[in-house]
Amino acid sequence: MKELQCKCMLLVVLAVVTAMASANTACCSYPCLNGGVCMTTGMKGFKCDCAGTDFYGTVCETPTFMKRIKLWLKPSSDTTHYLLTHYNWLWNIVNSVEFLRNAVMKKVYTLRSDLIDSPPTYTSEHPYITLDANYNLTVYTRTLPPVPDHCPTPMGVWGKKEMPDVDKIVKRFFVRKKMIPEPIGTSALFSFFAQHFTHQFFKTDVKKGPQYQWGGHGVDVTHVYGKDKDAEAKLRSFKDGKLKVQLIKGEEYPPLEKDAPVGMVYPPGTPEDRRFAIGQQVFGLLPGLFMYATIWLREHNRVCDILKAEHPDWDDERLYQTGKLVIVGETIKIVIEDYVQHLSNYNLKLLFRPELLFGEPFQYQNRIAVEFNHLYHWHPLMPSEFNISGTTYTLREFVYHPEILLKHGMHDFVDSLSKQRAGQFGPFNHGPMTLPVVTELIKQGRQLRLQPYNQYRKKFNLPAYKSFEQMTGNKELAKALEEEYHDIDAVEFYVGLIMEKRRYLSVFGTSVVEMGAPYSVKGLMANPICSPKYWKPSTFGGDVGFDIINTASLKKLFCNNIKGDCPTVTFQVPDYVEGDVLRDEL
Ligand code: HEM
Ligand SMILES: *[C@@H]1O[C@H](CO)[C@@H](O)[C@H](O)[C@H]1NC(C)=O
Ligand SMILES: *[C@@H]1O[C@H](CO)[C@@H](O)[C@H](O)[C@H]1NC(C)=O
After folding, report:
1. Cβ of 444 below 6 Å from ligand 1
2. Is residue 48 classed exposed, middle or buried when 0-12, 13-18 and 19+ CB atoms within 10 A define those classes?
3. Are 195 and 395 in contact (CB under 8 A)?
4. Active site residue: 30, 292, 339, 376, which one?
């Protein structure tokens, strides 16, 4: 018996060893350039498929004649960024001449979204194309396939056989010692908007694994209405299209869970009168999320009133469904014209105008990529403390206390968040509450076999960094990072994003913007409401609904839904609050 077991073991070991020896690792160094696809051939060797890349040669290294001209004419992303964030006089002209503004905006849409492969190509399961990548919606898509199995190192061929210790990386580069404020003046209202908006489509099914998700792959407003029909039914009042509300101190707020049992996440022992029911089950986490949940709820009900006045013949169902379409439209409008506008810091005034893409080659479908999710972990943007009308709360005091919003009321709460600086994105700025999140994220990145950071730079038309100093812009940081990773090509995705030097007049470094913008533009403009059959007044209840979308703004979202005078509502802390001493200077 014992002998048999022994023999068995030997056979298994032998099989593994032969598999390793025979595994063709030729693609581990990503030899194909410019988006060429590497395919192993036989036991060793590889072939690059350069189809559709405008390059040819063994490793797709030579541009076609036309491509050569295009490359020569094309400004670098840094040049474009400089242009867009300077020359105010030029942009004043562009912004005021309709056809120029439309033409530039159309370019923004197409140049950005062209970088996203659509239909999607990869998942985390295979380092090559599968049909599952298109049909399986339970997993995130992948922009770059996973590092092939049996490669010499976890990053392919670079770095050491063992990745650096995660806890050590987090301790050394991420821990916030003193809150570093966001240098262009971004407000905490922005941080919460980011978290609130993105959690409608970043929904990792952690129990199943980091590649699994339970979202709808886009801007589907499930964070307002609920994840499925069952949850929606619990949140709806079934009267005039409206959602359930409760009145507290004369203001409307989301209902309690006892009146809308949607299965929220609250710590055990949370009293019943603090368990609010919201479309996204984790939004009881912070009063800032509760604030956005409340304001969108009020907006939906306000829109329903307007639609009902226009269409007295419509039943509850039609008012509800149409209201929802208006809310999607308003969301995208506000995200582009307020949120992305602030984040980009462009002098070009951005536009949400779906008709600019009509007639262009553009796929109205979207898939959330796991890399987009990782890239959007903007936890440093959360400050350590909040000053709400003179009362100071630490972040810890905020956590699972949505009722802090009720105490101060909507007006004072949004006013205070507008006057309060966000944290800076970058190293040494993760507060204690978010350290476990970033630790887990880096582990997940490894489990998912994400390709090195520099590979992603190339995928998004950015030059790979040649040294740690070039990447961080800081000698000391560069040295420390090099001690951990040894090779610039072995730096992992999220660590690279955080450690990259910030761009002047920018919230982020180049990578977050140049990688994030394509996912973002694609996700917003590929929404069905932007397609020709949807994007017309009748979809939104006629001109009244269409106008609500086309004139929506962050400020109106709040002011239309707060009684009395309008508070300060801004993603940029106003100069009069703190002066602009700590900001980048123009
Ligand atoms: C202090 C405030 C915050 C806390 C306490 C917090 C906490 C968390 C926690 C516990 C997770 C889940 C991690 C896991 O399940 O593995 C998470 C995920 C995430 N957070 Fe935050 N977070 C905060 C703010 C933010 C902000 C401002 C953003 C900006 C966009 C953000 C973006 C994300 C993203 C994209 C995920 C992944 C969600 C998913 O895949 O399901 N978070 N956060
Ligand atoms: C989707 O892919 C995952 C991971 O490979 C698999 O577990 C799941 O069964 C697939 N779902 C469908 C519907 O094929
Ligand atoms: C808190 O904000 C108020 C304005 O809302 C300001 O007058 C006060 O000085 C701030 N307090 C602290 C401790 O920053």
Report:
1. no
2. buried
3. no
4. 376
| Dihedral (Cα; 189, 192, 193, 195), 10-degree rounding | 160
Residue 63, preceding bond cis, omega within 30 degrees?
Answer: no
Q: What does the DSSP assignment read for 447-470?
A: HTTPPPHHHHHHHTT-PPP-SHHH
Q: Is 382 in the pocket of ligand 1 (CB under 6 A)?
A: yes
Domain with residue 397: its CATH number is: 1.10.640.10
Confirm whether 535 is domain-assigned.
Answer: yes
Catalytic residue among 81, 196, 199, 217: 199
CA 262 to chain centre: 25
Compute CA distances 533 → 354, 363, 523, 577, whole Å: 11, 14, 18, 46
What is the mean pLDDT, run by run of 10 residues, along the chain of 586 residues? 50 45 86 96 94 97 96 91 93 95 95 96 97 97 96 97 98 97 96 98 97 98 98 98 96 97 96 96 97 98 98 98 98 97 94 97 97 98 97 97 97 98 97 97 98 98 97 97 98 98 93 96 98 98 98 98 96 84 57
Within-domain flag for 70: no
15 occurs within a structural domain: no
- In the DSSP assignment, the letter for residue 236 is B
Outline where DSSP puts E strands in 306-447: 385-388, 391-394
Distance, CA of 349 to CA of 347 (rounded, Å): 6
Contact indicator for 32, 51 with CB cutoff of 8 Å: no
Closest Cα partner for 425 from 382, 364, 468? 382
- What pLDDT score was predicted for residue 11? 47
Is 557 a domain residue? yes
Which residues form the domain of 581?
A: 188-425+516-585
Decide: 448 and 124 in contact? Cβ < 8 Å.
Answer: yes
Number of domains making up the chain: 1
User: How many residues would you count in the chain?
Assistant: 586
Is 251 in a helix, a strand, or coil?
strand
Count other Cβ atoms within 10 Å, centred on residue 395.
Answer: 18
> What pTM value is reported for the model?
0.95
Could you tell me which residues come within 8 angstroms of residue 71 by beta carbon, excluding any fewer than 6 positions away? 63
DSSP 408-460: HHHHHHHHHHHTSBPBPSSTT-B-GGGHHHHHHHHHHHHHTTPPPHHHHHHHT
Residues near ligand 2 with C-beta < 6 Å?
125, 136, 138-139
pLDDT number for residue 580: 54
